[in-house]
TrEMBL record:
GO terms for cellular component: plasma membrane. Keywords: ATP-binding, Cytoplasm, DNA replication, DNA-binding, Lipid-binding, Nucleotide-binding. The keyword Cytoplasm applies. Pfam families: Bac_DnaA, Bac_DnaA_C. InterPro entries: AAA+_ATPase, Chromosome_initiator_DnaA-like, Chromosome_initiator_DnaA_CS, DnaA_C, DnaA_dom, P-loop_NTPase, Trp_repressor/repl_initiator. Belongs to the DnaA family. Plays an essential role in the initiation and regulation of chromosomal replication. ATP-DnaA binds to the origin of replication (oriC) to initiate formation of the DNA replication initiation complex once per cell cycle. Binds the DnaA box (a 9 base pair repeat at the origin) and separates the double-stranded (ds)DNA. Forms a right-handed helical filament on oriC DNA; dsDNA binds to the exterior of the filament while single-stranded (ss)DNA is stabiized in the filament's interior. This is Chromosomal replication initiator protein DnaA. One of its GO terms (biological process) is regulation of DNA replication. Residues 144-334 form the AAA+ ATPase domain. It comes from Halodesulfovibrio spirochaetisodalis. The keyword DNA-binding applies.
Length: 448
């Protein structure tokens, strides 16, 4: 849950492909120590690479998303977490050569007990896809609908339904009969591209009786898998073994699919999930708040569900509220609630950007936006630049490295100094506080 919330936060600052490389392989959860987050690497070598490519960004995101007081603990799956500060290097314990060279396995299935049909909230508009999923989960031979393709927009519940099917199948069959994963999992199994290794992996997979694959749209990033997927499809279909695929959008929207693969996917049943309605969002939010013992008023719950029509965004803001309460060990005040809402809200017609903030500040000081991005050291320009950095940090949650890049490649320490300087001015000077509030209002108004 925490990982999903952090990823939603990081998506505002980093490209999708970058996050897939250094963020997605991590295992992230709350640490055993108070005010700590545990981060596990898939293996020691990844930890060494991560130090250079993702460590600074992750730690800054943890501080911005949860609290500056949170400590990040690093480990590999075979080691105990070792605490590190924001400036320390993560521990990368040794792994034996035998462990490093373990062949890819397709036997382990991680479904998650929370992903069941009972916990999938829906109303009349999504009765058909849910009924289709339940029918497939009966594991009849031969299967009635093969393949079942569950499509829908991001956040509509495709992954939940896929895992609910798996959860139901595992009540009747051993986990060795089931393949459950996404396109990246499949790509990892085929990381050795040699024909012999590819054939051996295919032989392992087709021994399963059920093939459940998520994120079919990600095939665009792994085009080499399309031919292999056709071979797997034929093997499962010819042997009356159930297949279920999930994808964002309909098949017709993915023009990168090979015609032979597309036609096979269209043989079966397409079930289209629609976005969750207001009543479902309120029910989900109420359940989550109750589970995490977070006290919000009815008006606040309605406000949340009105602003965040995208279900994933709603999940993200609920995770953030839960993380704040758990790590800070205090109730969510009205002020903190409003701050979290404002920093997460994407309902504005025009998103707030650093360019808008820079333009607003430059106009106030009768300067050109390019002056704030320059190396000019005139007192008026320096102050305007520092205020713009502070506002960008406060309103957008930008990391210090990101701020440095935005403002013409400024040094990390320069950015920190600027933000802290304005923070101190606000505390000590009433006029500065009024000015910052006025500029904040102008920035937010400029997006409407």
């Amino acid at each position: 849950m925490l990982k999903n919330g952090l990823r939603n936060f990081l998506e505002q600052q980093y490209p999708e492909k970058e996050l897939r490389s250094w963020f997605d392989p991590l295992t992230i959860d709350y640490g055993d120590l108070e005010k700590s987050v545990s981060v596990a690497f898939p293996h020691a070598f990844f930890g060494t690479w991560f130090t250079a490519h993702g460590k600074t960004a992750l730690e800054q995101a943890v501080r911005d998303y949860i609290s500056p007081e949170v400590v990040v603990l690093y480990s590999t799956p075979l080691s105990e977490p070792a605490p590190v500060s924001a400036s320390n290097t993560p521990a990368t314990p040794c792994v034996s050569p035998a462990q490093e060279k373990t062949a890819p396995s397709v036997s382990k299935v991680a479904v998650g007990s929370q992903f069941t049909f009972d916990t999938f909230l829906h109303n009349a508009k999504n009765v058909f896809p849910v009924a289709s999923a339940k029918e497939v989960a009966k594991a009849e031979i031969p299967p009635k609908y093969n393949p079942l393709v569950i499509a829908g927009p991001s956040g509509s519940g495709k992954t939940h339904l896929l895992r609910a099917i798996a959860h139901q199948i595992l009540k009747q069959r051993d986990e060795s009969a089931l393949f459950l994963g996404n396109i990246e999992d499949l790509a990892a199994l085929y990381q050795d591209g040699s024909p012999g290794a590819r054939f051996e992996m295919r032989k392992q997979i087709v021994q399963k009786d059920f093939f459940l694959l998520d994120d079919l749209q990600r095939l665009e990033d792994f085009p080499i898998l399309q031919e292999e997927l056709i071979a797997l499809f034929d093997a499962f279909h010819d042997n009356n073994k159930q297949m279920v695929f999930c994808c964002t959008g309909g098949l017709t929207t993915h023009d990168f699919l090979l015609p032979n693969l597309r036609s096979r996917l269209e043989w079966g049943l397409m079930a289209q999930l629609k976005p969750q309605d207001m009543d479902i969002r309120i029910k989900y939010a109420t359940n989550q708040l109750k589970e995490n013992q977070i006290k919000l008023t009815n008006d606040q719950i309605i406000l949340l569900c009105q602003r965040f029509e995208d279900f994933r965004l709603l999940q993200g803001v609920l995770l953030k509220l839960a993380a704040f309460k758990e790590l800070m060990q205090t109730e969510v005040s009205e002020y903190e609630f409003n701050q979290i809402i404002e920093h997460t809200d994407k309902t504005k017609s025009t998103p707030l950007t650093s360019d808008i903030i820079i333009n607003v500040v430059a106009e106030h000081y009768m300067l050109q936006p390019k002056d704030l991005l320059s190396e000019k050291r005139h007192q008026k320009i320096v102050l305007a630049r520092q205020i713009a950095m502070y506002l960008t940090r406060t309103l957008l949650g930008s990391s210090y490295p990101a701020l440095g890049r935005i403002f013409g490649g400024k040094d990390h320490s320069t950015v920190i100094y600027a933000v802290n300087k304005i923070k101190n001015f606000i505390v000590k000077n009433k006029d500065t506080k009024l000015l910052i509030n006025e500029l904040k209002e102008k920035c937010l108004t400029a997006t409407k």
